[in-house]
């Protein structure tokens, strides 16, 4: 027990140190963590980390999908549902069958069913990889939504196909009726459990005002939903995504402000640690996978190279026709005009794989029907090489590609203008409510609230004409932070001199910390 605890603490320390170094030098943290894992895996004496498929698919994936779904805009997701489904279902099936045919052609003695299972393993881009890289390099918002939406759903498609292909490889009966039933159970059951999860946990969140209980409920939500769905062989991935989308859409009215603030900080920490561990663990699998590799070097190189190339090429072959052919339909073309060629090009190059591919590969059967063997060690290595190869090749070149193609980013002024217009309406609503509720309140209080409302309204309009100069709002934040530092020092000295108790200091510190956090947030958005 103590040995495992030291390993966990050591891995967390490595994640923190590597992430800090990556941010310090402006590098992509996921890429640096994978490289660090690869390097550590060949260090003599460094402990081997054995990943289990259940740990990845039940322990790591649900909370990461849940957080991503919470932060996904439901209106944006709905608007982009067509391209999301074309990628999450159509592209996954196209890639899986393409890889299956290529692997079977190079390994004619291996049944097509298990080659198709390999295709299902390497077909879906990873939610963590897509989110971590796409947001970091500043892709346009709609492209990020499409990539995130794809990665939220494509795991379900791949895992259902993997289950059917593995069943066929093991000698089970897989006909049209079986395929239809498994697909209906996975998708329909996942949606049903997702809706039930949203209703149950939404009800519980509504009934509590304690931030700690809200956090505890939020922590167990993805695990309860995925375990309940998987118990009846429905898609836990779909269930978690549906629950996250539904709860995230209702977040502003579902719980108290204190709960939302604490939960936001809590999930940022969980997301940071899990993402970091995911990328580090991928790299650390190198030694274990290499030790288990028994296939000849020539076969490994040929099949791995062919599968890797197929994974990359299939995405381009699918995306270009799909992007433009669907717009031959006038209704679609009017609603969603034809994008420039840069858009499908960048989307095609953003297909990084992640730890889900490795977790799915670990579920591949040890033997086939009648105990026949197949090169499972080679399939595991191909999955590992696809993850590392796409992360390093595509992850490291995606940002230069975006710059070279001159892909136009979102106009920040448009967001500021929209915010300013809505803030103006919100300020009017606030003043109207103040007039209704003021009653016998002291005039000084009413004047102070009116001034606060006007200040918030001014901040949004100031950002439109900032032009690199210090706006009044930024000057206010800078000076108020200096004042808070002075107040904090007075309280600290009073505590040290015994004039106030520790409890008094903590209470005052809490109030100052809240105000300072609000100032920092205002500084980020101004």
UniProtKB/TrEMBL annotation:
Family indicated by similarity = Belongs to the monovalent cation:proton antiporter 1 (CPA1) transporter (TC 2.A.36) family.
A GO molecular function annotation here is: sodium:proton antiporter activity
| InterPro entries in the cross-refs | Cation/H_exchanger_CPA1, Cation/H_exchanger_CPA1_bac, Cation/H_exchanger_TM
The protein in question is named Na+/H+ antiporter
Which keywords belong to this entry? Antiport, Cell membrane, Ion transport, Membrane, Sodium, Sodium transport, Transmembrane, Transmembrane helix, Transport
User: Do you know which Pfam families this protein is assigned to?
Assistant: Na_H_Exchanger (PF00999)
Query: What domain of life?
Result: Bacteria
Cation/H+ exchanger transmembrane domain: which residues?
13-403
Does Transmembrane helix appear among the keywords?
yes
NCBIfam families listed in its UniProt record = a_cpa1
Q: A Gene Ontology CC term for this entry? A: plasma membrane
Q: Can you supply a Gene Ontology BP term from the record?
A: sodium ion import across plasma membrane
Reply yes or no: does the keyword Isomerase apply.
Answer: no
Which residue ranges traverse the bilayer?
Answer: 6-22, 27-43, 55-77, 84-104, 152-173, 179-204, 216-245, 265-286, 298-320, 378-398
